[in-house]
Amino acid sequence: MEPDSEGTEAADQVFEEIDNRRSLTGAALVAVALVGIAFSAYQLWLGARGFVFEFAIPGVTTVRLGALSSLQVRAIHVNFALVMAYLLFPGSSGDGAVTRRIAALPSLARDRLGDSPVTRAAEGVRRGVWWLFVDEESTRITPSDLGLVLLSTFPTAYYLTQYDEVTDVIRILGLGGARTFGEVVPPLAALEVGPLAEYSLAYLMGVLAILLVLEATRRALGLLLTLLVSVFLLYAKYGYLLPRDVPVARTFATSQLRWDQIVQNLWYTVEGILGVPVGVSVRFIYIFILFGAFLEMSGAGKWFIDLAYSITGTRKGGPAKASVVASGFMGMLSGSSVANTVTTGALTIPLMKRSGYSPEFSGAVESSVSSGGQILPPVMGAAAFLIVEYTGTPFRDVVIAATLPAIAFFFGMWVMVHFEAAKRGIGGLDREQLLDLGPHMRRGWFYLVPLGLLLHYLVIARLSVGRAGWLTIIATVALIAMVAAYNERTGPYLVGSILAGYALFAVSLASLGVTPIELAYGAEASEFGAVGALSEAASSLPTIIAAISVVFLLADPRGDAPLLDLDDDVIDAATWFDERTGFEVASSRAGQFGSFVLKAMDSGAKTATIVVVAVAAAGIIPGVIGITGLGGSLRALIISVSGGSLVLLLILAGLAAVIVGMGMPTTVMYIIIVVLLGPVLPEFGIAILAVHLFVLYLGLMADVTPPVMVAAYAAAGIAKSDPFDTGKQAFLLSLNKILVPFAFVFSPGILLIRTTDGQGSVLTGADFADLGFFLPEVVAPIVAVFAGVYALGVAIIGYYHTDVRSGSRVWLIAAAVLLSVPGMVLLPASAAFGIVGVDVALYSVTNELVARGVGAAILLVGLVRNRRRAGGDDYEEDESDRRGQRDSSTAATQ
């Protein structure tokens, strides 16, 4: 299915409103694309070869460019993101307070002085400022942008050339012991004036790096995050001025710090900008964003959306159900609620509206499921990789733990769109409007291969996250190369050549102990048996497929490729190139394949830029907390405010996640909340993985929570609906993202983990065999949370065979809570008994089962009563119709 013109135009308009990136053309567009491709190539090298940059020329020599340390690699990573941010996002559009005043100067001078030299000077100043700094139409790169690009290379260049000073001097003596500019670069000692003479070069480079990160943050992510980070910076310097005789202020008062101490901590250690978040971005986040870009540019996004409609489109409320499936998948790849809403909403929202859903409900469904895509394994959003790093949990375990809660959320969405369809009498689409499932699967079954391989690498082979991402990207490229080279004429030869190449590798391994490629590079031989040789050769299969397919493409670049269906952005980019160069790339299957690879690398870099800038800026916050000792004070304050109540602490943590998440990227929200609240919750015996997933779930609610609700605003723009009503409905539809995390915090069995002394571990065979644990603490909570999600869905929609009355809705909500989170009732009840002097511990596994049973009974009674009432209403309607028919017959007879 293709988006109609209504949906596409609305989506484009919304995207232009919410995305402040430049629309570049010509040489500027090519330059930005080249930087993005270089960024992706750098990350692919890290994924394949690590931090050593060398390559061998077979039979000649090995060229070694150097080996980088972790901090140097991170500095280059951030530098690439800064360059991309300055090129992609304008610094000023001319509507700021300063630029407005400068723009008003010429007219003000003309009114008072006429056409005078002063007026002409004011006009010259205005033109000069606009040329240097202002990009009103977001279509050109200004000289100031190029200046910032140049400046951004200086701190990184210092890291690369003076790293010995960082390790041997700065870490021991501080920035005051480092050399000045003239000492580092003697030929330019004459330029050592002012700050260059007063401060060490390392200090100046650190200050410059921090300011550059703040400016990139302002451009790419807005003023809110920039101000928040700036407040933390000022707090680090001036927090000691807070009065120590005022109770709350005393908690936040710090010892006095010098600027050089702050700068050293934030730029020259792993505690600040180049800390854990950026390290995770280098190792995990970027490579998975790139994988998502390759998969999307291959055409998989379109194929999966069509697949969702083919499977669910004819069902009751089919368009909305397809939106649940398709948006979940696309959100998993994009990692952005807003981008997913705009991308898939262009198709799903108009179809939902035409089928009978209200514009507000259509936008609410799309924004709600789009914001939930980041909790859907196996890819999830960038925050999932931060969870891996902060908790020390293998990504495989994170995927396993996150699976059932994600399914529960999407099940709840399915339930709600189903009952809304039943309430409004909305059917499905005609089969003629949809693609046939069988032919559709035959045309694109291979899109499932990368996801299957990713799961294999992560769950079965247990490779590192970065390595799994790298191998999956290579497999995706090989797959699309094969698809591009395949047609009825070349198919048998292509498959035969691949099999022959695989056999050659296997025989070479079995007989020589190396592959033919390794033999050319002089690798040492190993011993393989027949089975080992076949297995090892299988790991080289993507390389074999890619190499042979590219040979076929070069031999016949203009042959047909019936299975190749790349994303429209790839074809548009190739067509744009052809129009300006006279080549025929877009009409060549070899050209399309090359465009696919380059466009995916470019798209991945552009998507990753915002994430990298966000985690670099967010890294300042834990850096400040660490150097000021604020963490311990906050921990004591939080425990004091919550009064030691787990329920109250969870509610406070949830509110904090939602509030901080408003207008913030998910990764930034996660970092802030985890740094502030993460150390507190495990003290209550909660598994640390449950704590971090809880923060992620609640933070995602911010995208659909009024008044900010960025995803809901985007959906409302496409649906042409009232934004506030759309956001309100999206918030209600997303309440499962509150119910489910509260459920797995109290019952970690839902995450398929077992908690012992506050430490959680994925269930083993012994845990499954321990029925005394498995049935009440795993099976019962899982069944109950799905039942609770069902009850909440019915209550929100207010329909089950007939309209649900207000009183029944309240009882269904109570049933949802008792089924999913009985601890939220039992713990406060115990506290209430304690207030009146009765010491009783109600929170136990047995009482949880009883409470779940009560919730199940309430749900069952409510559903049965509503169904009977619906039957009675139908009977009364039928009787009324029959009476009407009899009266009509009698009247006709008379």
TrEMBL record:
The keyword NAD does not apply. Keywords: Membrane, Transmembrane, Transmembrane helix. The chain crosses the membrane at residues 24-45, 65-89, 196-214, 221-240, 273-295, 398-417, 445-463, 469-486, 493-517, 537-555, 608-630, 636-660, 667-688, 694-718, 730-753, 773-798, 810-835, 841-864. Residues 208-470, 597-754 form the TRAP C4-dicarboxylate transport system permease DctM subunit domain. The keyword Nucleotide-binding does not apply. Residues 870-894 are annotated as: Disordered. Signal peptide: none annotated. Pfam families: DctM (PF06808). This is TRAP-type transport system permease protein. It comes from Halorubrum lipolyticum DSM 21995.
